[in-house]
Amino acid sequence: MLLLGLGCLALATGGRATTVNPPEFPDLVNQSDFIVRAVVKTVVSEYAKPGSRKIITKVELEVREVVAGTPTQPLVLRMMGGKVGNDEMMLEGAPQFKVGEEGIYFVQGNGRQVYPLVAMMHGVYPIMREAAGREYMAQSNQVPLQDLSEVALPMAQGNAAELQRRMRRTSEALTPAQFVQQIRAAVKPSNNRLLER
Question: Domains in the chain: how many in total?
């Protein structure tokens, strides 16, 4: 298995997680090229070019709502890493995409950066559903998002994330509508990129 280092794109060995500084909520919003609510339609990993061992993954999103900015059509996120046959190249800490999952995506540098979401794991917020059908927001580690201040905190992984999931009441988590409202309120008046729709 090949591990991809975020800073210099060098291939490394070892199991270190990628270090990403979590952004403050207004920075998360205003660093985005566009923000969408979307469902993962397809996930395809392939070699970047014939004869190369470099793997890329293309994630096609079906846009349900444009929250800010102007997304490309069709919207296909292109990122480093993935699995082709027995070859695997992964970016430690990067969220995994599964067909059918819905979320709110803060897209930045698609096709130009190693990972096209703002601050990697901090740039995707899955939309979860309670048994009764109520939708609520979560961070990419599946921990319910109750307050926007949590965006700027380091993201727990493994057992720590599992403990947080058990301690949080999903009924107190933000709904998608509340989250979208806060995103739109955080767009700076001078940010023409996100105001265009």
Answer: 1
